[in-house]
Every structure is written in C-alpha cells, then in structure tokens.
C-alpha cells in the first residue's frame, strides 16, 4: 500500500505530479490518510494548526492565489508547520504543469522529508531522506489515475557481467600462437651470451659474452676513430 510508505514517518511529504492528475489530488490523499486512520484537514491557504492533525494542501494552487512575497511566505510557513507539535504531517501536492516559477519545486524538495514523484500513468519514484542526510530511492508501479492506492515495487534488473573463457591461440584479430617450426627455431636459437649459475647463488648468474668473428671492436686509445666527422 502506498499509505504505508508515506504515512507516519515523515513530517513533510511532497507529491510532485509530473503526469497531471491534480484534479484528483484531494481524493487520493484523503484515501491514503483514511487507510491509516489519520486525522487530517484540507487547507486552502496556510493557517495555524490549533489541534493535532495532518495538513493537506495544494502548493501549486497556493502559488496562484498568493501575490506579494509568495515564495518567501510559502517556505517560511512550511518551516513553521514542520516545527509545530500540533502538525502530525504535512502533505503538499504540486503539479509541474501549473507551477508559475520553476524555482518553487527544488526548494520544496529540499525542505521535504519524503518526495513522491508521479512520473507517468504507471511509474512512481519515492525518495526518502534520513536525518544523516543520506537518501534512498525506490521505484513503484501505481494506479492512482484509476483511484487505486495500491503500489508494487518495481525491481531493477540485475545486470551481471559475463566472463568468457577464451583461448588466446584461437583469437581471430591477433595471431598469438606459434607454429611447430617457429617453436623449433626458438628452441634451437643460439644467443651470443649464456647465463652460468654460480655454485653458491640461487638468484644470480654470470653473463658470458661469446663474440662473433665479424664483431668490430674499438681500440681503447681512440674508440671513435672509425666515425666520419
């Protein structure tokens, strides 16, 4: 049930309507609160709450009614209601297509403790905020446009990385393997040096260089006399 996700735990619950079901917002919120046996009042404008109850108000409608310092008054009054012991919860509904100044939405989201975003006719996202400042987001399937308040959490598909076992000798792009004649030539190759293990050493060896007959050595007194300047 959607009501079990939004009723009781968060002081200011903000419904962000991206789909456009605001004409039914009173019916929807009334049903949610009645499912959890909550006392509530509909406010057409901000006023003091004199007895313990939850407050339900359309913030986009309030924006249209107010004139002077409308945004300052909205933010200030919400903060006062959040601090009031008589206010059990604040349920604000804002329809994006009816908002006059887009700055209103991010400010209200910042002040809220729970954000219910109605993305379209089926999908909904609920973002909850902890006192530590961390946030948790869940996606749901809803039928609010049909007057139903039951929701189902939509699990995101787990993407698993697939590890393929490959034989490097069979790769098509680079020919890494060696033919039999290439392996034989490698084994029979005689390098011009060899490593001799010393009797008392396990990790060191002595390199002995065996010169070829064609090697050209420089004289010690003038090692560069064969260079042309």
UniProtKB/TrEMBL annotation:
<dbReference type="GO" id="GO:0000049">
    <property type="term" value="F:tRNA binding"/>
</dbReference>
<keyword id="KW-0539">Nucleus</keyword>
<feature type="region of interest" description="Disordered">
    <location>
        <begin position="204"/>
        <end position="229"/>
    </location>
</feature>
<comment type="pathway">
    <text>tRNA modification; 5-methoxycarbonylmethyl-2-thiouridine-tRNA biosynthesis.</text>
</comment>
<comment type="similarity">
    <text>Belongs to the ELP5 family.</text>
</comment>
<feature type="compositionally biased region" description="Acidic residues">
    <location>
        <begin position="213"/>
        <end position="229"/>
    </location>
</feature>
<dbReference type="GO" id="GO:0005829">
    <property type="term" value="C:cytosol"/>
</dbReference>
<keyword id="KW-0963">Cytoplasm</keyword>
<protein>
    <recommendedName>
        <fullName>Elongator complex protein 5</fullName>
    </recommendedName>
</protein>
<dbReference type="GO" id="GO:0005634">
    <property type="term" value="C:nucleus"/>
</dbReference>
<dbReference type="GO" id="GO:0002098">
    <property type="term" value="P:tRNA wobble uridine modification"/>
</dbReference>
<dbReference type="GO" id="GO:0033588">
    <property type="term" value="C:elongator holoenzyme complex"/>
</dbReference>
<dbReference type="InterPro" id="IPR019519">
    <property type="entry name" value="Elp5"/>
</dbReference>
<keyword id="KW-0819">tRNA processing</keyword>
């Amino acid at each position: 049930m959607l009501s079990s996700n939004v009723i009781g735990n968060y002081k200011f619950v903000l419904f962000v309507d991206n789909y456009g079901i605001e004409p039914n917002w009173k019916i929807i919120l009334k049903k949610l609160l009645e499912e959890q046996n909550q006392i509530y009042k509909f406010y057409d404008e901000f006023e003091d709450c004199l007895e313990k109850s939850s407050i339900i108000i359309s913030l986009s409608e309030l924006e249209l009614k107010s004139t002077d310092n409308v945004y300052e008054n909205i933010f200030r009054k919400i903060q006062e209601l959040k601090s009031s012991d008589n206010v059990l919860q604040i349920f604000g509904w804002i329809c994006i297509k009816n908002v006059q100044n887009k700055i209103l939405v991010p400010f209200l989201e910042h002040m809220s403790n729970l954000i219910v975003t109605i993305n379209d006719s089926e999908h909904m996202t609920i973002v909850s905020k902890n006192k530590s400042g961390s946030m948790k987001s869940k996606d749901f399937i809803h039928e609010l446009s049909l007057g139903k308040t039951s929701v189902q959490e939509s699990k995101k598909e787990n993407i698993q990385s697939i590890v393929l076992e490959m034989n490097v000798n069979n790769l098509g792009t680079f020919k890494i393997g060696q033919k039999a004649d290439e392996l034989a030539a490698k084994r029979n190759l005689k390098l011009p040096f060899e490593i001799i293990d010393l009797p008392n050493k396990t990790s060191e060896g002595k390199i002995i260089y065996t010169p070829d007959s064609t090697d050209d050595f420089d004289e010690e007194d003038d090692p560069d006399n064969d260079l042309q300047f």
